[in-house]
Amino acid sequence: MENRIYLCGTVHLDLAGPERLRRVLQTLTPKYVAIESYPELSHEVLEKRKEFVSYDEKSLLQKIREGSKLPTDGVRTDSALALLNCVGYEIWVPFEYAEMSGAQIIHIEDKERAQRITKGFLDDIIRDPEKAGPFIEMLKQSPKMLKNIFDFCYELGVDGDKDEAEVVERNKVFAERIRGLDGRVLAVTGNGHIYGAEPTLQTLLKEYNPTVFKLIQADYFDSEPQNK
Question: Whole-model pTM?
Fold first, then answer.
């Protein structure tokens, strides 16, 4: 297998993300999949995913209503379910691929930093009805419109990261954990790490001449896998 690094920029709430990422993995057939996660987070996401797929639609919606403190008046059920079906896809889809192919998952996220970022997000958005307003309004749109909204984020080039210094520090950690892997590597990270503030991942790994693309480009991928 040739040595090659592919950097795939994602939008975290890409409604077509699972299908797109599966297509990328099937086409590139990487030996390593580097993901923006750490082991405990991956375990949690995988367990939540198992729980999600075990519920029927009625039970899942009831569980969401019971666990949410946010206003849900006017929120479309089909849009909420479509969003839930893509959450964490950058973790659980690579694990699906690894199980089928024998590929190795490489965790490139720093645990302490990631926990702090996640807590900040939850405090700002999930637990604060006022700050969650724009997000709730999006969920009043149809799944098709919601998909178009998140697809447009690919045109913006980044995925909502505001703290550029934080992104750059994470880029350095990510690059160090990707560097030196022997074989075909697919790194799956938010767009901001590849197309955002310098030095980006593609700059930090420039000695490997990485192939860089956005996940939305998977819509145009050749379905034939690359030679191993």
Answer: 0.89
